[in-house]
Amino acid sequence: MKSQELLSLISELADELEVPGVAVGLWHKGTATYACYGITSIDNPLPINEHTLFQAGSIGKNFTATLLMLLATQGRVELDAPVRDYLPDLELKDKAARDQVTLRQLLNHTAGWEGDFFPDTGDGDEALMRFVERMKELEQWMPPGAAFSYNNAAFCLAGRVIEVVTGVSYEVAVSKLLLEPLGLRESFFFRDQVMTRRFVVGHKPAVDGILQVARPWALPRNGAPAGGIVTSITDLLSWARFHLGDLSDGYELPQLTGSRLAAMRKPTVHMPGCGFGDAFGIGWFLSKVGGSYLVSHGGSTNGQEANLSLLPEHNWALALLTNSSPGGLALCEAARTRVLSACTGLAETEARPASVNTLELAAYEGEYRALGMHCQINAGDKGKLLFTLYNDPELLQLMTGEEPVIRAEPAVLEAWPVEGYPDRYVFASNPIKGITGYFDRSLAGQVQAVNLFGRRLPKQVSRR
User: Fold this and answer.
1) CB of 222 within 8 A of CB of 399?
2) How far apart are CA 271 and CA 294, in angstroms?
3) Considering only CA atoms, which of 68, 150, 133 is closest in space to residue 102?
4) What gap in Å lies between CA 67 and CA 227, rounded to an integer?
5) Which residues form a coiled coil (predicted)?
6) Could you tell me if 332 and 384 lie in one domain?
């Protein structure tokens, strides 16, 4: 796929989905191709180029996982060792989980506690230490290793392990042990590093639907291991090439080659029907495509959406960075589908809506909650499910620092049951059309939780 074709594709999608700026990098059969479109900000516009910096969000989790893999190859950590071997003062609400949880369970989202925890613990080097001290506030929903549920807090804890083992801050450890050896000179964590370069701001629609700049721009410092990296499309594609084993630029980490990187792409937990993938390795989502795994990770911050995908068997990688949400999410999904097909002829399997009567849907009805997420599910007409999503003012206040935060009107999303797969559903309209999820049942066959955007939300028991 040539640069002009890429540019035509992303400009078409950006205009359609109201995304002010996009950068894309494609690696296929030994050739890198880039295309950039749009502006950094609707308030202070500058053209986007290959060196413009974007927030990559949770793609940063892959850097955290890779660094722990490096430390494991050096014999400085063991992935199946309890976290308390490295953090003996760790306290969690559940004492059994505190003693049992391993590094691997932090890295594959099976730690089992509430994961969306975003208190601001300051800008100093103690930020992660203070964050971990507050983790005893989190409810333990499942024993460690029991099931997948996306967990930002677990990756922050993993970042703290990196600090203790290396003796330096998380950001310094990533820079010295990963970024510098791999020649990634356009990847940063701190605002002072970013603000002297060309960078984008996020955008979101206001209540009236008009796109506006999203504030605040930065995440709390303690969020760095879960998604604080800021990078360019050239660096992000170089990171993908490293994971594919490409050494043509002369950069490598001799202790992390071949089988060790491939081990990160092997399933460690399965979650068929999850909207992000069918399984999770170490720092990577895995989705079945054409008999092999499409390896990927997305990233969302305040008004920015990103995606990084690899298909190692085809020597293929695609990096996408956008500065709008939720439009950027739909753009990343559509662009990946079309570029993957154009380059390899492969396509991800689409979930087909099933015809289900309202009586069968009654089992799913109810209220589902986890920290920061509240969903009411009801049976709609014509066999659909209606998901009513409520925002959490307290969580928004933690994230934005603004007080008071007004409770927004709930969003109502339509979903269909999936043909041939009991207890799965697929959303029916943009910007999340095609995103799937599933319901979890107890041993007695009762619906006990919903997996929504990768998070496990327990069903609330009626107290009537």
Assistant:
1) no
2) 15
3) 68
4) 14
5) none
6) no
231: nearest Cα among 62, 13, 106: 62
- Residues 270-313: tens digit of each pLDDT: 998 888 899 999 999 999 998 889 999 999 999 999 999 999 99
Residue 408's pLDDT band (cuts 50, 70, 90):
low
Residue 72: phi and psi, rounded to 5, are -70, -40
Instruction: Give percent of the chain above pLDDT 70.
Output: 96
Q: Who wins on pLDDT, 39 or 443?
A: 39
Q: Is 208 exposed, middle or buried (0-12, 13-18, 19+ CB in 10 A)?
A: exposed
339 is written with which tokens? 């570029």
Clarify whether residues 345 and 372 are in a common domain: no
Q: Tokens 């109810």 map to which residue?
A: 366
Question: Are 448 and 310 within one domain?
Answer: no
Which structural domain range is residue 257 located in? Answer: 1-349
| Residue 232 included in any domain | yes
129 lies in the same domain as 276: yes
Alpha-carbon span 453 to 437, nearest angstrom:
7
Beta strands in 302-453 (DSSP E): 304-311, 316-322, 366-370, 373-379, 385-390, 411-417, 424-427, 436-441, 447-452
User: Is 427 within a domain?
Assistant: yes
143 & 232 share domain: yes
Q: How far apart are CA 214 and CA 202, in angstroms?
A: 5
3-class secondary structure, 173: helix
CATH number at residue 309: 3.40.710.10
Q: pTM of this prediction?
A: 0.90
The position carrying tokens 């950069």 is 251
Tell me how far apart the alpha carbons of residues 323 and 414 are, in angstroms, rounded to a whole number.
Answer: 26
Please give the backbone phi and psi of residue 17, each rounded to the nearest 5 degrees, phi first.
Answer: -105, 10
